[in-house]
Amino acid sequence: MKLFFLFNLVFIIIVNAHVHMVYDRNDVFDRKLYEEVLDRGECLKQMRYIVTKDPLLWARFLDAGYRKPRSLLKGSLNDLGSYYECLGINKNVQDMNIEGKYCMANMPLNQFFSLSSLPVQSELLGASWPEFNSMMFNIDNSTYNDLIKQMSIKKQLQGLVGITSEDNNISRDEESSQGFQISIRLAVCLPKPCSLHNVLETISNISSLRIEEDYCRIPNDKPWVAADYVALVIFTLLGIFMVLSTAYDIRHRIFLKKDPKTANSLYLSFSVYTNTLRLVTYKPVPGALECLDGIRAIAMLWVLVGHTYLHYLSAPALHNPLEIFDFIQSFWSLWITAAPITVDTFFMLSGLLLIYTTAGKMTGVKLLKNLHMFYLNRYLRLFPVLAACVLLQASLFYRVTDGPVWEVVAQQTYQCRKYWWSTLLYIQNYYNPYYVCIPNTWYLAIDFQLFLISPLVLVGVVGATKRTAWITLTTALLASLTGSSIYNFIMRFASGIFTLSPSREDQPEYFTLYYVNTLTRSSPFFVGMIFGYILYIYRGKTLIMSKVQVALLWFFAIILSSGVICSHYLVIQQDWDNQIVDDLINSYMRPIWALSVCWMIFACTHGYGGPINWFLSHPMWKILARLSYAMYIFHYPLMFVVNGSIIAPLYFSDEFAIQKTMTDFVIAVLAAYIITLFVDAPCSVLIKHFLGGNKKPAPIKPLDGTANPSEANNKNDSA
After folding, report:
1. Lowest-confidence range among 42-56, 404-418, 488-502?
2. Which of 196, 443, 579, 672 could be a cystine partner for 627, CB 3.0 to 4.6 Å?
3. Most confident of the ranges 178-187, 610-619, 692-701
4. Taking the complete model, does pTM exceed 0.85, yes or no?
5. At 317, which helix (H) or strand (E)?
6. Radius of gyration of the chain from its Cα atoms, rounded to whole angstroms
């Protein structure tokens, strides 16, 4: 326990010592291109022509921006203008090529100014600037305070999503009575040689108006880098291999009508036909835990729903963000605010399958002798899909589309280009927790780290007596619970993924120091190990339990799991302030949840699941469970791409959130299927071939997924 606690403490110190840099979008967009186009003299020349000689062109520039955000009193602080209309402006006149440049500008609320009294430089423009109402950007104090609360929630949500750039809508202000200064963000369409400062200077000497240029976009501002060329070459080669392999397979099976078993397994490894058959073909396997497919698939769906809402609520531009505050506090949001608990289901499954598939198959000495293969098999099993996603995020995902809030995707691209190696080494939750490449892969990091220390437990379980095994498993769980409890009571975290209470905002960083910390997330893994051993002991045996015992165990499982879920409603309220209960929840909520799900698995396996077992073991979950690993890896970056391409603020409602969830689900399934055919299935065959000797596997052997998302499509992954 001391070693485990010390291990995490050292990494926590590294986290605290890590420099918290602010993302610079110029590292992804073409910095030189922006600087090269700026020309104050050319800007004045083009502005003079546009305003005095081409009113239709001037109207196009005005139409693409220069509007106050709609529904300002509902918290809408961003006006996105017309991104594509602005960048589509391209007109050759006289000796000038007039092109549009899309910019975002920050303007603090509740500032007083008057444009009508300011002299317009008519000698330059020969026209007047459109009239503005000096009160159009002012709101009452009550709405201002509500906006501060909403922006605090948004900042916490964006931190959970993986958006770590500073929020440009809110900043500290010593002169403000509230202590904060809230700004609106306006889209501005300018001629390409101009900066916002040039235009304001050209129009009038506005000294009383505070407005700053945030960022600008121009056509073709995404430079090609090495990652783009590498991605094109690799995926082009994979496509060629797929075509050749599929052609060989079809010729062998259909035209020559030969036995599929006589085909070369390496030649078939990239075949769409064979890999699809392996994906959809299912054959019962003795000893398989059939209910795990349903549990894993439903848990994956819950993760997807939670992430959809999280991306939705933290969207860069919302039409009615003030309504989020009421939604989060409502009881009906519980299925979203409690969604993070489902990740502990996967940690539990990982520990359960690790023991269940290895106990009785080897001794501790044999395990230690083959420890290098134990780790190598695990690493290579996870590597292909993860590496493919990292490469796509660093390259093609960034280029696939665009939009006025594309800097969110640019940040993810920057993080993958800079920290791809820490993701592939599974240390990103400690080394760069603020800048994780593929933010949801923090789960893989913890899962792999727990796998690394698992031999410390396995050597006392595999091939050992029951007494030794129970002592080892119990000691591991108690060490995990004790270490995490001491840590939680010392650090005094809030117990929710975000807090609405102003008095709790100065507490330690919840996400980096607790949520992605291996120590605090380890207990479900060891609970799973214990139940994996119990399932191993009773494997193939008939277990007789009385109806009273079964009813009581189901009752306690339902009560405990419901209590874990409902606790999220209590701790998220504004008036919640009970640190002792927070510490208890943080320490024991996750193992209690794992315990409840473990009983469900045990009951279903031994005939005490009833309709629950029928539902979870239904074949409809098979394909979804087999795709779950690729779905988990790819759904998150694809959400960034979809949400980064919006062209107008979204309206928040449950109905639209459900529609987005269905859309994200379809996209995730299609992407998982494609990546399984392109990468996962071929690499699985190749890895088994080169690491498993010369044994020739059957070409249509079912891919029986029995583990968590990181173990899908590989029956004996943990062995």
Report:
1. 488-502
2. 672
3. 610-619
4. yes
5. none
6. 29
* HSE-up (13 A, CA, CB side) for residue 87: 14
Torsion sign across C-alpha atoms 420, 8, 448, 342: negative
Residue 185, both tokens: 């963000």
Q: Which segments within 477-630 are labelled E, that is strand?
A: none
Mean pLDDT, residues 550-556:
95
Distance CA 495, CA 483 (A): 17
Q: Determine the 3-state secondary structure of 288 from DSSP.
A: coil
Three-class secondary structure of residue 549 per DSSP:
helix
pLDDT digits (tens, 9 = 90+) for 313-339: 888 888 888 888 888 888 888 888 899
- Those residues with Cβ within 8 angstroms of residue 638's Cβ, 6 or more apart along the chain or in another chain: 397, 664, 667, 668, 671
Q: What is the pLDDT of residue 713?
A: 42
Tell me the C-alpha distance between 663 and 657, whole Å. 10
pLDDT at residue 696, as a whole number: 47
Query: Which residues neighbour 41 within 8 Å (Cβ) at sequence distance 6 or greater?
Result: none
Question: CB of 630 within 8 A of CB of 680?
Answer: yes
Query: Is residue 202 pLDDT above 80, yes or no?
Result: no
Residue 139: predicted pLDDT: 67
CA pair distance 135, 143, nearest whole angstrom: 15
Bridge partners of 182, per DSSP, are 170
Angstrom distance (rounded) from CA 626 to CA 586: 32
Say what angle helices 547-571 and 579-605 make with each other, to 10 degrees.
150
| Residues 6 or more apart in contact with residue 37 via CB below 8 angstroms | 101, 192, 193, 218
Closest CA to 75 of 136, 133, 145: 145
Would the pLDDT of 303 be above 90? yes
278 contacts 681 by C-beta, under 8 angstroms: yes
3-state secondary structure labels for all residues of 414-471: HHHHHHHHHHHCCCHHHHCCCCCCCHHHHHHHHHHHHHHHCHHHHCCCCCCCHHHHHH
Q: What is the token pair recorded at 295? A: 């549990």
pLDDT at 137 (0 to 100): 59
More confident: 197 or 125:
197
Given a cut of 50, is residue 3 above it in pLDDT? no
For residue 514, name the pLDDT band (cuts at 50, 70, 90): very high
Of 139-153, 367-381, 403-417, 538-552, least confident by mean pLDDT is 139-153
Q: How far is CA 485 from CA 104, 193, 510, 667, in A?
A: 46, 59, 15, 40
Query: What pairs with residue 107 in β-bridges?
Result: 184
- pLDDT at 7 > cutoff 70: no
- Which positions ≥6 away from 348 have C-beta within 8 Å? 524, 525, 527, 528, 531, 594, 597, 598
Instruction: Yes or no: say if 714 and 703 are a contact pair by the CB < 8 Å rule.
Output: yes
Report the alpha-carbon distance of residue 321 to residue 701 in Å, rounded.
51
- Assess whether pLDDT exceeds 80 at residue 6: no
pLDDT value at position 111? 65
Report the alpha-carbon distance of residue 134 to residue 217 in Å, rounded: 29
Long-range contacts of 326-331 (CB under 8 A, 24+ apart): 327/652, 328/153, 328/500, 328/572, 329/500, 329/572, 329/573, 329/574, 331/569
Instruction: Name the average pLDDT for the chain.
Output: 83
| Longest Cα–Cα distance in the chain | 96
Q: Enumerate the β-bridge partners of residue 324.
A: none
Q: How far apart are CA 72 and CA 143, in angstroms?
A: 9
Tokens 């079912």 correspond to 702
β-bridge partners, 98 = 91
Average pLDDT over residues 56-68: 87
